[in-house]
Amino acid sequence: MLIYILKRLVYVxxxxxxxxxxxxxxxxxxxxxxxxxxxxADATQETINEMKxxxxxxxxxPVQYLIWLWHVLHGDLGTSIATGRPVLGEVTRAVINxxxxxxxxxxxxxxxxxxxxxxxxxxxxSVADRAASALSVFGVSVPHYWLGMVLVIVFSATLGWLPPxxxxxxxxxxxxPDFDHLRYLILPAVTMSVIPTGIIARTVRALVADILxxxxxxxxxxxxxxxxxxxKHVVRNAAPTALAIMGxxxxxxxxxxxxxxxxxxxxxTGFLLNAAIFQxxxxxxxxxxxxxxxxxxxxxxxxxxxxxxxxxxxxRA
Amino acid sequence: xxxxxxxxxxxxxxxxxxAGDAAPExxxxxxxxxxxxxxxxxxxxxxxxxxxxxxxxxxxxxILAPWITPMDPYKGSMLRRLKHVGDATYWxxxxxLGRDMxxxxxxxxxxxxxxxxxPVLIAFVIGSAIGILAGYVGGWLNTILMRTIDVxxxxxxxxxxxxxxxxxxxxxxxxxxxxxxxxxxxxxxxAESVTTGIRxxxxxxxxxxxxxxxxxxxxxxxxxxxVGPIFVYATSLISVSMILASGLSFLGLGVRPPEPxxxxxxxxxxxxxxxxxxxxxxxxxxxxxxxxxFNLFSDGLRAAMExxx
Lengths: 317, 309
Prior knowledge:
The complex is a heterodimer. Chain A is mostly helical. Helices cover 74% and strands 0% of the residues of chain A. In chain A, helix 1 packs antiparallel against helix 12 (282-310), helix 4 packs antiparallel against helix 9 and helix 4 packs parallel to helix 12. By secondary structure, chain B is an all-alpha fold. Helix content of chain B is 71%, strand content 0%. The two termini of chain B are 27 Å apart. Chains A and B meet through helix 1, helix 5, helix 6, helix 9 and helix 10 of A and helix 5, helix 6, helix 9 and helix 11 of B.
C-alpha cells in the first residue's frame, strides 16, 4: 500500500508542476501586462519601469517562473494588485466558504443520488427507473446558474421563505454554523447539488444493476440469504466506486462554483475569481486558480488511494 | 468519467467493418454498412428523433432569425419595459430595455449555438488528431502528449474555461478559444484510448505490409475505425459546451451587449426577477431545452452505435 501511495505521488509531481506552469502562464496570456490595470494612463516610463522591477516583471519569463515557484513553495502567492493584501489570506478565506458550500452540496447530491440510483438499479425499467434516468438527464443538462435564479424567484422573490443572496444576515464574508446562516446556505447548496445528484444516480444505477447480475448474488440467494443480507453485499461492492465519484464531484463543485456563487453572491472562491477577473487583479487570479487546481489534484490522489484501500480487487502494483 | 472506456470498447466490440476484413462467405446480401445500421437504429429511437427534430428546429430558427423575427430585436422602448408573457404585441413579453423577448430569443439562438457548438467542432478536429497520433505512434510521443494532457485534467472544466477567458479578456473569439482548450484534452484522451485499442489489429498490419505510409494508415485505416466513437463522445460534450459558453456570457466574459445571447440575456434580466420573474427566466429555459435535446440525441447515437454482431 505504501509503495502504491509513493508511486502515485511520483506520478502526481509532474502534473503539479504542469499545473503551476499553466497558472503562471495565464498571467502572460493576458493582453497588456499585469500592471496596466493599476497604473494611471499617464504614468511615465520611469514609473512603469519602477513598478515592473518591484513586481519582478522586468526579468525573462523562465526566471520569473522560477522565482514565482520558489515563493509559492514557501506559501507566498504574492500580493493582490487591487487590495495590496497577501493573496494567500484572501484565497484561504474564500476557499473555506466554498468548501462549506461544496461539501453540503456533495452530501445532498450523494444522499439523493445513491437513493435514486439504488431504487433504479433494483427495479430496472420500472417507473422509478425512468424517473431516476430523467432526473439524471435533468441534472447534467440544466444550466445551474439558471436553476439558481429560478430557485431565488420561487423561494425568495415569490414565497419570501429564504434570503436570495449573501452568506449571512450581517452581510459579513464569513459563514457560521447557526440557524441564521444556515438559511443562507440552503438555496446555493441545493442548486449546486443537482449536478452530482444526476451523475451519482446514473453511476450507482449502472453499478447496482451490474452487481445484481453477477453470479455471486445468485449464489448468495441460493444459499438462502435474505434480501437485506444481499443488499449489504451490493452496498459493499458499489461503495468504492460511488465514494470515488463523490470525491471527484466535490472537486468539480469546488472549482466550478463560480457561476452559482455569482448568482447568490456567496463569498467563496468563485466570487473572488470574478472580482479578480473584472479588476484585472492577475496575481489574485493566478493564486486562486493555483490553489483550486492543486486542491483538485490532491483530492484526485486521495480518491485514488481511498478507492484502492477500500477495494481489494484493484491491483496495487 | 466512464466515457473513454465505453468509447474504446465500442470500437473493439462494435464491429466497425473495414476494407481489410474478410468478406462473409454466405450469400451476398447488400449491406447497409456500419453507418447505415446506425442510422436505421437511430430512426427507430423516438426519444433521439424527437431531440434531433428539436435541434433541427432551433438551428433553422437561428439561421432564419434575421428574416422571421416578429419585431426588431435591438429596438427598445422605455415605456414598454418588462411586459408580461402573453402581451398582445410582445408575445413573450419584453426585456429590461423594452425589447421584444421572442425576437431576441430567436436571434439569440444564433450566437448561443455558435459559441456552444464551435468549440466542440474545433476540439473534435484537434483532439482527434492529437489522440490518434499519440495512440498510433505510441512510445515517447504518446508519453509526452498524454502527460501534457493530464495537466489539463487537473483543472475542473468550469475553472479552466473561466481562468482562460478571464485571462484572455471578454469577447466571443476568446470564449471560443477558452472552451476549445477545455475540450481538446478530453477528446484527445478518448481518441488515444480508442486508437491504442485498434493499433495491433490485423488490418493495420496488413496495411503496413502492403507498404502504406504511417500517415496513410492513420488517415485511412485508423481514422475510419475510430472516428465514430470519438464523434459520439464529442456530441455528448455539446450540451456542456452550450451551458459553459452561455455561462461565460452570463459572467460577462463572452458575448457583449447589445447582441442577444441567452446567457447574457439571463444576466441582464437578473435585475428584473422581482418585477417580471417569468420573462427573466426565459433565456435559461432555452439553454436548458437545447442542452437536454443535445444530451438525449447523443445518448441515442451512442446506443445506436453499440451494435453487437
